[in-house]
Amino acid sequence: MVQVLKYDLVPFEDYLTGEREVEIRSEYVDGLVYAMAGASRTHNTITSSFHALIETHLREEYRVWQSDMKTVIQHKGQRFAYYPDIMATCSILDEDEYICTNPILIVEVLSDSTERTDLKEKFDNYTTIPSLLEYVVVSQDVPLIRLWRRRTSWEREIYRAGEVFHLESIALNVPVEHIYRRVRKEVGLEIA
Questions:
Q1: Where does the UniProt annotation place the signal sequence (predicted)?
Q2: What pLDDT score was predicted for residue 108?
Q3: What does DSSP assign to residue 3?
Q4: Angle CA 153–70–13, to nearest 5
Q5: Which pLDDT score, from 0 to 100, does residue 71 have?
Q6: What average pLDDT does the structure give for the chain?
Q7: pLDDT at 76
């Protein structure tokens, strides 16, 4: 006998309303709500270093957020809401203070539990956002940056230790090692 799992789908508006009052954030994938796990020290340090570099570089009319601002996407009749590790925009279009629907840059820092989602599901959905110019995925185990740009039809670029990549969306040159400067030992840049 085969058992079928039954899921209760959550209406999108209920998710948005409820998300403002919860202690544990969740992402929304076409009716299903997934609680987000906490991130490691290494993950948080990498994210903080990258966010700080972007924040100090941006012109005043730009905004950048780290982990607590969600982006909402509608793709192929489905709705999604994610909390990117870093997200930047050059204009605020949304009246809802908790949402950004027009990011120009999204950065995700990989962990073992998010790798498949960040490289497939989120990639597929993020790249449908009309305003998005670049999607960056940062490894937390080794100094490795993967970058996709709308301008190149989302063709992947790879950058490693000793290299510098350019974020066209915000006109910023980023040395790969700068992102990992506080976790050099953890990612193999420094031998103990």
A1: none
A2: 96
A3: -
A4: 110
A5: 95
A6: 91
A7: 87
So what's the pLDDT on residue 7?
Answer: 62
End-to-end CA gap in the chain:
56
8 within domain boundaries: no
In eight-state DSSP terms, residue 13 is: H
For the chain, the domain total comes to 1
The sign of the dihedral angle between the CA atoms of 118, 122, 123, 129 is: negative
Q: List pLDDT tens digits, range 19-60.
A: 888 888 899 999 999 888 778 999 999 999 999 999 999 988
Question: Is residue 23 situated within a structural domain?
Answer: no
157, 160, 162, 167 alpha-carbon torsion, rounded to 10°: 40
Q: Which domain holds residue 94?
A: 39-69+82-179
The predicted structure's pLDDT at residue 3: 52
Pairing of strands 105-109, 134-138: parallel
Q: Could you say which residues of the chain have pLDDT below 70?
A: 1-7, 192
Q: How far apart are CA 105 and CA 87, in angstroms?
A: 6
Contacts of 60 (CB under 8 A, 6+ apart): none
Residue 55 CA, chain-centre distance (Å), reads: 15
Nearby residues of 180 by Cβ (< 8 Å), 6 or more positions away: 46, 49, 143, 161, 187, 189
The pTM of the full predicted model, rounded to 2 decimals, is 0.92
CATH at residue 49: 3.90.1570.10
Q: Is residue 156 part of a domain?
A: yes
